[in-house]
Task: structure prediction
Amino acid sequence: MLRFPISLHTPIKHAAKLPAKTDCVVIGGGVIGVSTALWLARAGVRVTLVEKGRIAGEQSSRNWGWIRAQGRDPAEIPITLAAQRLWRDLAGEVDCDIGLRQGGVAYLASSAAEVGRYENWMPHAVANGLDSRVLTPAQVSDLLPDAGRQWHGALWTAGDMRAEPWLAVPALARLAEKDGAVLRENCAARAVEMAAGKIVAVVTEAGRIETEQVVVAGGSWSSLLLRRLGISIPQLSVRATVAATEPMDHVFDGGAVDDRLAFRRREDGGYTLAPSGFHELYIGPDAFRAFGRFARQLIADPLGTRYLPAAPSGFPDAWLTSRRWSADQISPFEKMRILDPAPNAAKVRQLAQRFSETFPKLGQTRIRAAWAGMIDVMPDVVPVVDQPSSHPGLTIVTGMCGHGFGIGPEFGRIAADLVQGTRPSHDLTRFRLSRFSDGSTLELGPNL
Result:
């Protein structure tokens, strides 16, 4: 039976004793952190991963489950293709079926202008050898013969995949532990210690670990932890609502999205649904600080964001969340073990109605479960993957902008290379942290 998003009710599976000293500490047990720990362990590096709540407890078990190259920023496409190859390999190594299937991804166009946007992206697909193509309305009807709605066309990538995130990431964690990584859940990293300009240790709630290398892969919490180190990144978090239906008749084997909803087939016979182009931003101190950086994104998509007055208590950007604490004090990370926002109930009802309208032959859509997650976003809709020169030994991998699950294994491998001083096989210029401070003009990703 599928285990929908991991929560504090999920039993602790990783409770290893922390070492007094290690080569690298990974902070964050999402897909990026777990993948980093896996590749470091396989390279013979002594690595310890600490997670304040549960492995994959936040966005890594709450996402749509898409593993797509379609619609990506050009700099992400080669990384995503490498990640897809890794997913295929890893699916054969883990101890369970993670639901990895090649069902394709379709972006369904509600207007001729949307078709034009997809055609404009196609040169990136051709340059990277993707099997993407723009479909005519008749071809869309052939792809979705049971649909009760007509579209102007679609962007279709048959090679894209899907998997069950709440199964896949914990399975990767078990694999990393088997390969020698030390994993500890329910253990927050309170502080990164520096001396003589270098990292010397990570202080956790369970003790201090000497180390010269740290990877921060904390998702929505990264900005709060990095600020304590004097590093400011314009990262915000938005709430995204998701729902899962009861098992239903088969209408499509992959993932698809139009101007009303996104849907994808699950291995239990149901569908995962989400609103299209809709997310919610809680206004807090970080939102005010980063507003100027996000202005272009907001102008480009003025109606896609709903603004809420204040984050719930304990959220990273809540007004009363501590921005300063000492290493011997309980940190904000311990006060909020898992960021578990309530879903937007009205959107859940709307999703059920719209899915039934899209596929009338299915009859009434019954919702089995609903949840929400906080997506860490950057102003230009691409991540930060970098080692700031001001903090030798620190690697930052954050701001995945909703792309983290699919691309995670390869970004984890890249992070592992950076830790070891190995030149990455991909150009990371697009993901540099300094783009927010070196006077560069930010270029918005395609955000298709």
